[in-house]
Amino acid sequence: MAVTYQQKTNIALFLAILFHVCGLIGILFTPYKEWFINNTSVNLLLMGVLLIITQKEKPASFWIFILLCFTLGMIAEMIGVNTGYLFGNYTYGNVLGPKLYGVPWLIAVNWFIIIFSAGNIIYRLNEWLYKKLSAQMRPSFIVQVFSFVIDASLLATFFDWVLEPSAIRLGYWQWIPADEIPLFNFACWFIVSAILLTAFRLLKFNKDNQFAIHLFIIQVLFFLILQTFL
User: Fold this and answer.
1) Residue 116 in contact with residue 141, Cβ under 8 Å?
2) Which burial class, exposed, middle or buried, applies to 77 when counting CB atoms under 10 A from its CB (0-12, 13-18, 19+)?
């Protein structure tokens, strides 16, 4: 018996909630805090795989988008870590696994998760809004794309703002001077996100991934709780 899209989404949502709740309990309330932190890479990789599995159709344009996220994400991070010209002065710890020029490979997965999820949320909101408007009141295609990119980039940057304090405490990365997150980091996050989200908007693939929306909310709540109690 074939698994329906809704069943795939429900299974993915169950796994996402299970892993994040277990992570919260393990980090905040058990003596195995370091074990849970050191297995962050497993959770991150699983969430990326679940996003791909729950994608309705996977044309070449979808894989091109993933490749763009991986490539630009890694290049931007390598420039940042090795020069400070992007994001600021920071270094990655060993929690996220093997590195290339000082950047963990899994950071590319993180870029895909954040950009894809933020893109799905804003795209769905825009589509809902435009259906409420008459044809005469709808903005031009260029205005729609520009509005989408700005809004989705702000959402992706907001996620980084939520993530930063917990990521530092968990040893994902460290800023130099210690714990001083520069505004330049968020400006660069917005710019890199805008490039990737322009590709997201213009490439033709299905942008109705329900799990992506749920995952974004789960991860925001996860890091807000860690930020509060860690």
Assistant:
1) no
2) buried
Structure tokens at 53: 């599995």
> Can you tell me the distance from the alpha carbon of 168 to that of 178, in angstroms, rounded to the nearest whole number?
9
Question: How far is 126 from 145, CA to CA, in rounded Å?
Answer: 10
| Contact indicator for 228, 75 with CB cutoff of 8 Å | no
Q: Is the dihedral angle over the CA atoms 69, 74, 75, 77 positive or is it negative?
A: positive
134 burial type by CB count under 10 A (0-12 exposed, 13-18 middle, 19+ buried): exposed
Reported as a single tens digit per residue, the pLDDT across 115-152 is 999 999 999 999 999 888 887 888 888 999 999 999 99
User: Residue type for 52, please?
Assistant: I
Which residues neighbour 166 within 8 Å (Cβ) at sequence distance 6 or greater? Answer: 223, 226, 227, 230
